Amino acid sequence: MDPLVRTDSLTKTYTLGKTEVPALHTLNLAIDEGEFTSISGPSGSGKTTLLNILGLLDSPSGGHVFLEGSRVKYNGLTNLHKVRLEKLGFIFQTFNLIPVLTAYENVEYPLLLTKKSSAVRKELVEHALRDVKLWEYREHKPNELSGGQRQRVAIARALVNNPKIVLADEPTANIDSATASEILDLMRTLNEEEKVTFLFSTHDQLVLRYAKRVVKLHDGMIVNG
Amino acid sequence: MFKFVRLATKNVFRNRRRTIITGLVLIFGTSALILAGGFVSFSFRGLSESTIKGQLGHIQLYTKEALQREEEKPLELGLDSVDALKRTILGLDHVRFAMARVEFTGLISNGDKSAVFLGRGVEPEKETKLAGYALAVDTGKFLGENPGNTEESEVVLARGLAKTMKAKIGDYLTLMTTTSKGALNAMDVKVVGTYSTGIPEYDERALMVDLKTAQQLLVSQKVSKLVVVLDETDKTEEVASRIEKLLPGITARRWFDMATFYNAVVHLYNSIFGFLGVIIFVIVVLSCSNTMMMSIFERTKEIGTQLAVGTSPLRLMINFLYEGVIVGASGGAVGLVVALLLALLINALGIHMPAPPGSTRGYPLIVDLVPSLFIVVFFLITITTVISTIFPAYKASRLKIVDALGHV
Hints:
Chain A is of the alpha/beta class and 225 residues long. Chain A has 7 helices and 10 strands.
């Protein structure tokens, strides 16, 4: 069976003025369905760059990315919005919730981009919020929630459309360690019970302990994993 | 769609101060256009009624020939069988009455001094019926209002001519003119009143006599024209067309084809109003574009997130356009209410405007409440706001997702 996500000689080079800065070097990586994998490495190792390319938020300079066995065509990233909507979920370091919307409306937002009916949307949002144990806070706006609660809402939003894989870039960087543990426990539970595939980047040792598999990056290359 | 409109509404009011300032610009723009348009409408209405009542009537009937060549003798090309013509005209819908006029020129003398005059023979009762307030008799009375005077021919002089002739009420002057047969004729007339035409240059020469007096002076039963007065100015074209079909030898001149001054004023006011509209359009576009650009700049990260979770660039653009519609429609609606209240206030204050160039009479400052103007301005402001949102919305939809997410 094909891996859920696979890269083949993936390369990314940034151009800063006249200087070319290589971020990823002929990287080969495979993520199977159901994995709970972390990408670790020091700052500048290419973790975020890798996640952005796998999340179809950025395009590689060379090599290929395969999603469910099909090669991703990066001609016009904005055209990949449907793939992101249907197959991917995102959790950001700074939560990235829409401040004028309630927790319920933030989680519902991706569903509004689909053709799902109001009744189906309601069911999915409730399921997602209950999974993250925030149903009672559904009418609260982000500024009325703690950091941990906001990240839970973000997790619910990432999951509400039943994505194939959830990509999390430093998901615990902006919360305290106790809350971080709760978040990671939640993600782990979702992985084990609902078989959600998680790929997250971190340089936090506490976070790494939760991962079932750790892929180490250094200067844009995989050194371990 | 409703949920996206709700999101757009929440985004519009997330920065209240900025939204209020933009709203004030829209309210100002809406009110300015409606008040200016209402004033222009009143001015046009007043000027058209003044033109109709003061001089022209709604329609003037001539023989076809009279408008094709110059007369060699007075009333050579005038209308004949006037009573029969009047009966025919009075049978048409919307015609209130028809009155005859004789236009003639000659010399007026007080025995010591002579001056050229522009004379008009009229049916006094009907002229008063037409002109109403517009026939401002300064001193004395109008023609036919002097009981007991059945024998003497009367004249009313325009202000300037009375001054030139040093004529007072009760004085006798002599009118000299060429008859319809080409001979000279003269008649003594008694000054019974003076009036103002509202145009200083015309006031120097004008006078009016009874129709019969003019016809006696010119030795003819013809008239220069028949002036038709309607119950509704809007029916002018309809009635004129019917007359021309009914009476093929007659030309019916519509008042708006003869009102040179009125047409010049309309053209001038339309140009000014159009220019004002352009200025307001530019102000609204710049203000709303700026507001939207600021809003997008502040929400760059949020836009990146929306694109990341699967929002299409088109959907993102539409969401911003919704915001434009909400801001424009809200500002426009409040602007309508403000304009209405201001118009009512202005109309209640009874402000008087000075006389315009070429006239001697001022007029009241009134703002017409024109329903179609309210509707058009509302949609214009809303559409202008949406237009000003297009470019910022497009730029937002084209943001590079990674850069937007990394925006601080």
